[in-house]
Amino acid sequence: MPEQMHNPERQDGAARHVPVLLTEAVEHLSPRPGGVYVDATFGAGGYARAILETPETRLFAIDRDPNAIAAGEALAAEFPGRLTLLHGRFSEMEALLAEHGIERVDGVVMDLGVSSMQLDTAGRGFSFMQEGPLDMRMEGEGLSAAEVLNTFREEDIAEILKTYGEERRARPIARAIVRRRKERPFKTTFDLVEVAETVLGRPRPGKKHPATRTFQGLRIFVNRELEEVAKGLMAGERLLKPGGRLVVVSFHSLEDRIVKRFFAARTGRGQAASRRLPHEPEPPAPSFIDIAPGGVAPSEREVARNPRARSARLRAGERTDAPPIGEAPPSPTVSIGERKAGGRRVATRGRAPRKGGRRR
To answer: Under a CB-based contact definition with an 8 Å cutoff, are residues 167 and 214 in contact?
Structure first.
């Protein structure tokens, strides 16, 4: 069994939530008194509190994790009548807000990925640093990570780890997973850590833990996170008033690539009239102005204080009065063949992108 690993975001056994790029996110969102805003990824409420500190703002906070919503009641009590907690996915934000009579908002902030609160709760199974059930489900519904490892085909597991975890040794890890589950099924996070270390070696000081990409790939697949990101960005585009702002903080290259391409398409970056063919239709008018060109990275001081911030990147745009463009930003997907699980057929998921006529 792997050694108990130290979590830098825990002190004296208690979870410590540290909002990443908080000052920069609020500056780019620029909340104004009386405005209506959406915190699309409420988590532990770090961004929400900062927004509510602007007088008379009204905030709708969304989270797919029911534990986060329950924990947020204390913050709602601090700001009576101004914070509304909504359980659901941020891709559903239009429908969630419509139930409260809200059709347009002044700003949306999204902090992507898994929250510190989820990582620090061993029973959720998100972290390779603590032993707990190998779950990883944000909502507690659907296939768990353990079910994926115990029932999916070797080639499907390899594709998940390669596509969503960007793990270069996905195939030998998948092979080791299948070999291990024949002996005994996967149940805990340390079961998976043990396999990753067997293939990739023990963790070395100052280096990324060998299980990092494996855990990332499984978590993204189980929660369909990249699909949610693409849908959430489009929902934000439709909700924002002209002059409203969309601020997005991502933590790994797959998320950031989707966000970067979204803003590139919406701001008209790279378009040139001279490159269009005769009679080719005009491109749609830009629906955003880029207000964070090139993205914003955390300062060295913030990274030293909060190591989780190391890979963070903030991107932001201000809504124009042009109609929403409506085309989804491209995102990686995995093609999972039908399989037998517990005697029932399980539906396939989306196809992987193609390049040069072959699956990547």
So the answer is: yes
Full-model pTM: 0.83
> Are 328 and 231 contacting, i.e. CB atoms less than 8 angstroms apart?
yes
The span from the CA of 324 to the CA of 244, in Å, is 13
Nearest-angstrom CA–CA distance, 220 and 149:
14
Residues 251, 252, 253, 258: is their CA dihedral positive or negative?
A: negative
Alpha-carbon gap, residue 214 to 170, rounded angstroms: 8
What's the average model confidence in pLDDT over 197-215?
88
Q: What is the mean pLDDT of residues 260-266?
A: 96
Q: Report yes or no: 109 and 20 within 8 Å, Cβ to Cβ.
A: no
- pLDDT at position 52, please? 98
- The one-letter amino acid code at 350 reads G
CB neighbour list of residue 268: distance below 8 Å, 6 or more residues apart: 283, 285, 286
Q: How far is residue 24's CA from residue 71's CA, in Å, rounded to a whole number?
A: 25
**Is 158 buried (19+), middle (13-18) or exposed (0-12) by CB count in 10 A?**
buried
**Higher-confidence position of 155 and 352:** 155
Cα→Cα distances 313→70, 227, 247, Å: 29, 19, 11
CB of 32 closer than 8 Å to CB of 51: no
Structure tokens at 6: 């130290």
Domains observed in the chain:
16-116+226-276+307-319 (3.40.50.150)
